[in-house]
Amino acid sequence: MTRYAQLAGELRRRIDGGIYRGGDRLPSIRALCREFAVSISTAQTAYARLEDAGLVEARPKSGFFVRSQPAPTDLPAVTRPAQRPLDVSRWDQVLELVERHPPDDEVLLLGRGIPDLACPTLKPLQRLLAERYRHASGQDLNYDALAGSLALRQQVVRLMAGAGSLLHPDDVLITSGCQEALSIAIRTLTEPGDVVAVDSPSFYGTMQILQANGLKALEIPTDPCTGISLEALELALEQWPIRAIQLTPTCNNPLGYTMPEERKRALLALAQRFDVAIIEDDIYGDLAFDTPRPRTIKAFDDDGRVLLCSGFSKTLMPGLRVGWIAPGRYRDRVQHMKYVSTGASATLPQLAIADFIAKGCYERHLRAVVTQYRRQRDLMISWVRRYFPADTGISYPQGGFLLWLELPGGIDSMRLNERLVPARLRIAPGSLFSASGKYRDCLRLNYASALTPTIEAALRRVGEEVTRLYVGVGDRALA
Amino acid sequence: MTRYAQLAGELRRRIDGGIYRGGDRLPSIRALCREFAVSISTAQTAYARLEDAGLVEARPKSGFFVRSQPAPTDLPAVTRPAQRPLDVSRWDQVLELVERHPPDDEVLLLGRGIPDLACPTLKPLQRLLAERYRHASGQDLNYDALAGSLALRQQVVRLMAGAGSLLHPDDVLITSGCQEALSIAIRTLTEPGDVVAVDSPSFYGTMQILQANGLKALEIPTDPCTGISLEALELALEQWPIRAIQLTPTCNNPLGYTMPEERKRALLALAQRFDVAIIEDDIYGDLAFDTPRPRTIKAFDDDGRVLLCSGFSKTLMPGLRVGWIAPGRYRDRVQHMKYVSTGASATLPQLAIADFIAKGCYERHLRAVVTQYRRQRDLMISWVRRYFPADTGISYPQGGFLLWLELPGGIDSMRLNERLVPARLRIAPGSLFSASGKYRDCLRLNYASALTPTIEAALRRVGEEVTRLYVGVGDRALA
Ligand SMILES: Cc1ncc(COP(=O)(O)O)c(C=O)c1O
Ligand SMILES: Cc1ncc(COP(=O)(O)O)c(C=O)c1O
Asked: What positions does the domain HTH gntR-type occupy (chains A, B) (predicted)?
């Protein structure tokens, strides 16, 4: 990491940590130079980056100030899922969402978890892949090492250094997508009947893993800005025999928040106190809107209890199916589980991604998409404000490309989806994200690909249907 | 299938089924034309194919005769594993075998399950892959359908028609290697503590799946020519609560036999009688030395109880990680298990393989490698006869590229491997293939890639070490 990025990171952490609060005046350039022993230009660049990130503003003649967070007033409520372990179901709904629609059936899927695949900064990756496949010989066509290609594991280590973790390539195993990483992590830690605590709402893929393995999900209330409630989690840990905590603390799917760093540390301390493992899903972490990207919980993990799961499906292309896991002290069992699950992962996509990162193309690509996603977040939020009932709850994502809406009047998003069939539109219903039948009045949208007039029209149409349902609710209430 | 291939297949089945026996005179060309209503040239071509396959010989002026099978006299013994369900272990040894050695450590691995990757008929596949990756857009970079690409599922259906199965593309799900197919099949059918009956010796990958899922393996005695003992299996089914039968009945790994068709049918009848599912591993089936290739058990499955698992790791390249499963009546649960295991499989390798098959390149490639493997089987057997003690048991593979040896005097193949360290050679020890510690005196060799003087020298060296150990055994016996 460059000097100015380190400095910006440190300032960022102080802001996150509440050392400097909204409206506070920040140290002068000179003070920074003294405190950190850096040059004036380094200090200036660091502030410029924080300005870009929307965290700091320069006021003429008075210096730099912490920006008051935009603090949207229309955030969804803190979630209140059922406080007991539950079996997960809803596979039919998940299948309906994740199943590819036949190409002739031109449905516009507004809620899937897919990045922008038309981004020109992805093109070099396709070239690298093509070259690798054309020129591969012998070893590259063979079974890879069980842990995956060293070249890619080294690049993962480099990326994770930027997220605060000092890993060794032997700490990393490449998997067939992040889904395999999560599946292996959960199966390594649990036996049928065990309880796993999850943030709530929670990624449906993980919930289905719990279901398939006969596990129970204990959904913990979660704040749309700061993430899983540590107070509720502590109570749950006292009350239930929890085997693992599974969560997505950075650029959460579906809520978009990033847990503040002190809360990540506090969560880890809690896990240590109750001696449970943490399965940390970081698949959207590299898409954080702030630079440097937020640190993982794994960054603070000093006794190997965090199994960090991630991959390139959201930052590059899902169709490559390249994920990874850094399983800490569970490495040997995870490796065995990886062998029995799929053997080694495909060799050449790993090598091509390693090339892509090593050449700096990954960073360039991230810069491009993060800028795009951030802009499109704001645009899509403005559309929702325009086309949806005024009391719709809207998340305020800190990264990634997913927006979460809480519809007013308890409107059922499954019913909404049915109403959208004639318009050939589909949203992701909120109920997929809960084991306890919560979030029926919520839905997920995707703002990754170019927000064309077609998408605006689609969103207007969804808003109209919501409004109609809302009026219906009012009518029934009056009747 | 062409007319002559059908006819050759029918004759082949009569020979296999013992209707025509070694030395028997076969129907004349004219009789064939009458019986099957085919042309003279079709009948001639059918006999020519059976001649090529070594099953039939033409004797001048007297017509066609069934060849007496070479019936090697030095086959390994029928196996006698422990007759009770056992926990599987030996992960360390499996890891040592499957783990990729660092490139600088130039060990010659004589026992791994890897096809010849230098075969020129594979080159078009690399070109197709490169083109697919270079020109892919949108959908092809995205998550594939959960069941896999329709184009590949259609080609799998075509291939399996040649193995006697009439499948529909919806009956097939693409997986990340055959290992995932097996893993999913087993997890779909069982709960921890359940018993699975397996052929013995048995592929270590499957055994490790049993271990990881808390299942017990019941190893059934197996004949090196005709496969799993139906008599022993019947007894076992009466005695134990068996949830599934898992076996590799065609071009078995490691023994090389193909179960005769009547035995496959009888096995299915047994499974029906006891109402258990069959997990049929056919990964080497397309590499059978006879044409048309033997039919699967699945071909006779009329109530959907066979889960057929296969893939392209042995016929094309393991590093692509493309496998598939035809799960019969278990399709829905298998699909869920596939979703939670890895989500959809990688898109583009599937499309490239589908192109490769559709263009006829797969058949061309199979013809080339099958001819090569058959020739090399005979050459490697001749080397073993030359360099190993005379009473070494040698399998007689009907397809694939793996040879199984039974060493005389109870020589321990793990010890042999240790002795081979200075020579930078490694064989696959037999004990990996058993849960009950059997086959310590056996080993597996690979004859896929060109049998160069280097490999001959390596084999001679292995033979010398075996001979030395054998003499040692004799000495100890005398002492
Ligand atoms: C939070 C989260 N984790 C994991 C995954 C699965 O990732 P992959 O497609 O790499 O298996 C997803 C994809 O939707 C996700 O949103
Ligand atoms: C009998 C058998 N089944 C399955 C497999 C695994 O196949 P894949 O590499 O496609 O996962 C192997 C590979 O060694 C095998 O020998």
From this structure: 1-69
